[in-house]
Write a structure and sequence with these properties.
18 helices, elongated
Length: about 500
């Protein structure tokens, strides 16, 4: 799957007619006339414009060109601006077609405007391409400079669009082989060495991945990719990313109800998010060595499918009893986590749409963070807050570890008690991570249940921007610097 061009952006030239959006706070309403003219300010007030966050109105300009006013959030109690890139997403949805520039208060981060507009412009459709091209021409475009077109915000948007496209693709068009091919397409242009393992080689190296996938006619794949930044020497930090890529999850013999299957094309959202993050790391040429592992598989029902109470010996040598075939995601991850640990990475990060329990606890917008190192967890939490891309830490509570005991194997893949499901899933994965390995586990929903500015209904990859910033903080450089040279210098 190729990376789509961001047709919502237009590089500024002197030949283009450009209209203006003014982003204003309610407390600055008194200065509105100075910005747009008395006539336009009066018109806005008569229309009920109070600069509430997300309120958008068109007003007559001093010329024939239209002018838009967008309400944005007030500063917080500490006098700091509130970061909300998604707030600018409604401009891509609600403005008339044309080229638009956005003027904001000086304390608004320009990249938030660009990123929010691009995320708000995202649409996924398999409808007729000619009709789609015509529709794209009728949408607004944000005017940017050539430097901004190659900047961080656009790289972030392209990477998030990639994840959204992969998650939104119907499962009949996105099976294990297609996901593996998409990974190669996304990573190889940056010089990554990509290997796809399947068949007997996969069965030998990743026995639990193979066991999950043996019920489907579409056989499993494992993708292993390696890359090194142009400024990364042999001793540069090694970052290892692992993603759950269950392209469709029926639940297996522990069959999901039909209502729970409706969104199971998104169960490869962890792999999609890992690809988005890896692409962003490579596009910004971070000074790291990078390894990526994806378990691409389908959990189906057939005469060959795994059964409840099967026992399988993992790559780590631990035997696992299949207490529930619908707890397949952790089985896909554990072989990959163990292999990733064999090279002793400086940071091991996995992302997975793993448990409904995490959604019950935190809802759809907050990925759950599990980490075996308090300092690393604090850096991830701080980066999420600073990037307006939050997550929430849950504990790897060791008191629950015995809940996964098995009488016939080293451990079961499910807990013996119907509670703390996200925590016990994390504890299961921890058994396949070396005790001295710095490890972060993310349990994500990877989906928007309804459309909001910047977050259209469908697949998504929350946390990616925060993870990207956190990686730099963990390794001691500024991943958000303007250029790769600036990143190295910092």
């Amino acid at each position: 799957m190729p990376i789509r061009e961001l047709e919502c952006l237009s590089v500024s030239t002197s030949r283009k007619a450009v209209w203006t959006v003014h982003a204003v706070r309610a407390s600055e309403g008194g200065a509105l006339a100075a910005r747009v003219g008395e006539k336009a300010a009066t018109f806005a007030h008569q229309c009920g414009f109070a600069a509430r966050p997300g309120q958008l109105v068109l007003v007559p300009g001093t010329t024939d060109a239209p002018v838009a006013l967008l309400g944005i959030a007030e500063k917080n109690t500490h006098g700091q601006p509130v970061r909300d890139p998604f707030g600018f997403g409604l401009l891509a949805r609600d403005l008339p077609a044309g080229n638009w520039q956005v003027q904001t208060p000086d304390d608004i981060v320009r990249d938030d405007v660009i990123l929010g507009f691009c995320l708000g412009a995202y649409q996924y459709s398999l409808k007729d391409e000619a009709a789609g091209a015509a529709a794209r021409k009728s949408r607004p475009r944000l005017v940017v400079t050539r430097a901004e077109r190659e900047g961080l915000a656009v790289d972030m948007a392209r990477s998030i669009w990639l994840a959204r496209d992969l998650i939104n693709t119907p499962a009949n068009l996105m099976g294990p082989s297609e996901l593996a091919r998409a990974a190669r397409t996304a990573l190889e242009p940056f010089g990554a060495q990509v290997e796809t393992i399947k068949g007997a080689a996969l069965e030998k190296a990743y026995p639990l991945v193979a066991h999950v996938g043996m019920g489907s006619e579409r056989g499993p794949r494992v993708v292993v990719a390696r890359w090194r930044g142009s400024n990364a020497g042999r001793n540069a930090p090694l970052l290892s990313l692992v993603g759950k890529g269950v392209c469709f999850d029926s639940g297996g013999y522990d069959l999901k109800p039909s209502s729970a299957m409706l969104r199971m094309k998104k169960d490869m959202g962890g792999a999609a998010s890992v690809l988005a993050l890896a692409r962003l790391i490579m596009a910004r040429d971070l000074p790291v060595r990078l390894e990526v592992r994806l378990g691409c598989v389908e959990n189906s029902v057939s005469g060959r499918a795994m059964r409840p109470l099967d026992v399988v010996t993992s790559r780590a040598g631990l035997s696992v009893e299949i207490g529930n075939t619908d707890a397949e995601g952790r089985l896909v991850l554990c072989d990959l986590l163990y292999e990733a640990g064999e090279t002793s990475p400086d940071l091991l990060l996995d992302i997975a749409t793993l448990t409904g329990a995490a959604r019950v606890a935190l809802g759809p917008d907050l990925p759950a963070l599990f980490c075996n190192d308090d300092a690393t967890a604090a850096l991830f939490e701080q980066a999420g807050r600073q990037q307006a891309d939050p997550l929430w830490r849950l504990p790897l509570w060791p008191g629950y570890a015995d809940w996964m005991r098995s009488t016939v194997a080293d451990l079961s893949n499910v807990s013996s008690r119907p509670m703390a499901g996200a925590i016990t899933a994390g504890l299961f994965l921890e058994r396949f991570v070396k005790p001295d390995q710095r490890w972060v586990h993310i349990d994500s929903y990877a989906w928007n249940d309804s459309s909001r500015p910047g977050r259209p209904e469908g697949g998504d990859s929350p946390g990616i921007r925060g993870f990207f910033a956190a990686i730099g903080a963990v390794f001691g450089f500024d991943a958000l610097a303007s250029t790769p040279a600036a990143i190295k210098k910092s």
